[in-house]
Amino acid sequence: MLPGVGVFGTGSTARVLVPLLKAEGFEVHALWGRSEEEAFCLAKELGIPFHTSRSDDVLLHQDVDLVCIYIPPSMTRQIAVKALGIGKNVVCEKAATAVDLFKMVTAARYYPQLLSIMGNTLRFLPAFVAMRQLLVEGYVGEVQVCDVRVYGPSLLDQSYGWTCEELMGGGGLHTVGSAIIDLLSYLTGSRANRVHGLLRTFVQQNNLIRGIRRVTSDDFCFFQMLMGGTASSSGGMCCTVTLNFNMPGSFVHEVMVVGSTGRLVARGTELYGQRNGGKGEELLLGDDGWVGPEAKEMPLPHLRGLSSMVKALKESFQAHEERRLWARGPVAMAPTFEDGLYVQTVVEAVKRSSCSGEWECVEIMSQEPDPNHNLCEALQRNKN
Amino acid sequence: MLPGVGVFGTGSTARVLVPLLKAEGFEVHALWGRSEEEAFCLAKELGIPFHTSRSDDVLLHQDVDLVCIYIPPSMTRQIAVKALGIGKNVVCEKAATAVDLFKMVTAARYYPQLLSIMGNTLRFLPAFVAMRQLLVEGYVGEVQVCDVRVYGPSLLDQSYGWTCEELMGGGGLHTVGSAIIDLLSYLTGSRANRVHGLLRTFVQQNNLIRGIRRVTSDDFCFFQMLMGGTASSSGGMCCTVTLNFNMPGSFVHEVMVVGSTGRLVARGTELYGQRNGGKGEELLLGDDGWVGPEAKEMPLPHLRGLSSMVKALKESFQAHEERRLWARGPVAMAPTFEDGLYVQTVVEAVKRSSCSGEWECVEIMSQEPDPNHNLCEALQRNKN
């Protein structure tokens, strides 16, 4: 039986997610917005019976068994951890920091019977599901290089907000790069050991953001990941990712995997392949046309991935009579909070690399850093 | 009046160059090959009256006024410097090291009345000539990012030789990357301050190269250049270059320049552009079809660039009655030996970066390194 859903967020993703949920038969009972007004307007538009700006009102809502959290990254951890504590299943977007993710991982481990997945939707896109299958079957032989590029218009909101602030989780690397980092670990079945990157904010001010305000989040990012093998060896595969959001009027989303005997390329939502010695590129999976809701602000691969994730959620919950129970099978491919922690760790290593100019190791946090650490350092400095 | 030409080399470029020269009215009087047999065969095939394996026979040939040197990089310096010393005009491909180039620069400065250009032919390709013009006119606004990718089949020769050896000037970075480095400095009018790169040899052995022999030259290379601004500042533009020669059956040659108000992309020999706020990509320069000689081993952008360079040489020499004199105008855009030294310096900095993992500064050699330097170091070590 399908669970009742509570949605956090009034942004472009929430706006697309609600119709997708409804189309699959989920009932959306409650909507949370940062202000009463935002919540009221979107709830009215999407026909959601209850709206609020107080998070507990959604989390404690008796008809809500599944919470979908699509809010600014800096607020995600608090809601996600609380929802699990109250006994609700959670799907959420990325959080702001690795420490946040670590706390979410701890909560998820504490409630293993609850669903807790990252809403990193590219894994669910049929083109990438097929790509992974072909990689496992050896279509390209041994993977050598993954080459990803995403080009598009600015990611900034119309008004000044978290999308402009690097520390709030804004920027191409955090917003789009994280989905790519997750995707590449899913496709190749391995993780980055060392990363190198370069971030830039070419457009620091525009018509809407000016005066003393400046954009600090990246609009161009470029990073490399050495994956597989050991951290010290030079073997394994090289992943290169180029993100450029200074290209209004275009959207390029290309993921290429080159191996010893062939290659696979996903362009947008279509998958192409070519074997060495073959006659040329073949279309392996076409786009069968999108019939879901329109979403100007959301690129098609993310939109279709979101749609596939909702379908997987439906299958997962339909398997049980009790509306809070779910089956692992249909959502087994979804990124866990552990995967989210890995992704955020890579994001932060790339940012460190952009500052230091050096290759940075990817070391997953294994215990929470001492919250008094900075204080201790400050005291230490005073003593000397 | 057109000068008589002597050609060094029997490889794929020489094989294409001779018909191009003849088509423009140049007389090719002499051909040099590493062995008598190679020289004999190609001279017969291309109808060149004189062939030899002794370089002086071409350099001292009384009908030869222009020497075109397309031989393995490690041999280029010796022939080029000698040719200038004898008073011949020189067009040559890249040399093996920055020290070689420095010696060539010294010779070229000593004989300023002689033509001395690098045969880096991408500058002459009409798409790039148009691209540069549009960049100067401000089509893209302020340049932010250059993004170049070249994908193709293996660059290795059929048999073991210099193409397999990194130290002999083999590999994607040295062979193809150097043409891209030169092109980007031509297009943007600025030079790299700092570079970061990663080289890999994914295919170290194949059906022809096996046993104790291993390929040491890169078949995958990936580098970034920070250009313009000063070496210490983080401003200026970012160039990213991806070269992958593990992709048999395909050839991708894409040069994209993204700026604050638009972008330009050269795909193969065609040029496209898009202005921010415009209706979409427009074709700015199409391919009018290639009617010159076929060359399986040479990608079309290089082939057409070579053809345009030969046309420019014709114009340059036609401007004068005396067959050794030439006009600067038509070949003013050609890369000088100084440009060649810059390119080789960048290539070597990228190689250093691939070893060190760090950003490396591009510092052009201003005096010849002491040839006894290594000896001194060895003596020093013995003393301690």
Automatic annotation (TrEMBL), chains A, B:
UniProt keyword terms in alphabetical order: Oxidoreductase, Signal
Coiled-coil regions listed in the entry: none
Sequence ranges assigned to domain Gfo/Idh/MocA-like oxidoreductase N-terminal in this UniProt record: 5-112
Gene Ontology molecular functions: nucleotide binding; oxidoreductase activity
Pfam families with a match to the protein in the record: GFO_IDH_MocA, GFO_IDH_MocA_C3
Entry keyword annotation includes Ribonucleoprotein: no
InterPro entries: Gfo/Idh/MocA-like_OxRdtase_N, Gfo/Idh/MocA_oxidrdct_glycsds, GFO_IDH_MocA-like_dom
Residue intervals of the GFO/IDH/MocA-like oxidoreductase domain: 128-264
Keyword Oxidoreductase belongs to the record: yes
Domain of life of the native organism: Eukaryota
PANTHER family: BCDNA.GH03377, GLUCOSE-FRUCTOSE OXIDOREDUCTASE DOMAIN-CONTAINING PROTEIN 2
Family of this protein: Belongs to the Gfo/Idh/MocA family.
Name recorded for this polypeptide: Glucose-fructose oxidoreductase domain-containing protein 2
